[in-house]
Amino acid sequence: MKILVVDACVRGEVSRTRKLYEKLIEDQVHKAEIEILKLADQDLKPLTAEQVDLRVKLVNSGKFEHEMFRYAHQFKEADLIIVAAPYWDLSFPSILKVYLEHVAVTGITFGYEGADCVGYCRAKKIIYLSTCGGFVNGPHLGAEYVKMYADMLGIHDFSEFSVQGLDIDPSQEAMLMAQGTEEMLSKNLLS
What we know:
Elements: E1 2-7, H1 16-28, E2 33-38, H2 49-60, H3 70-77, E3 80-84, H4 94-103, E4 110-113, E5 116-119, E6 125-131, H5 141-152, E7 157-163, H6 173-186
Parallel strand pairs: 1-2, 1-3, 3-6, 6-7
Antiparallel strand pairs: 4-5
Helix pairs in contact: 1-6
């Protein structure tokens, strides 16, 4: 099994969301190839008009081996995808949106059959992990976005888990993280 971890934890080693996925992998992943893509370490930028034009030209001529499609190929070939993104500004850090723009490539990760969008990704499941300083108080818009995105790419099994309220009382942070991690592990998200 090939697992792709999309790490949108821009705070690096101090990220509580990163600690969640690291514990999930440590505790529940055995005999799998794990590829961790730390988005903060990538040279990801929003697509410019020139890049969009080049992308359209390459797709129309079937030249899918171009370097600009590396993220799309990597995403398509994973058997399981874990997206780790802290809850920021009602969704997730903007680097994740930029990454997803690079993943959505017609002819690689999705296509059309008539007017219907069809996903080409191999993964059967996406797991979305998040931590929140406060409380979401409604749908987690970041998770909802990734869920709809995954569906477009043909990945219909979606699980989400978040630990919330971590900044409300700093003296409770460690306890809340420990409880949240234990709850996450008990859910068997990988199955």
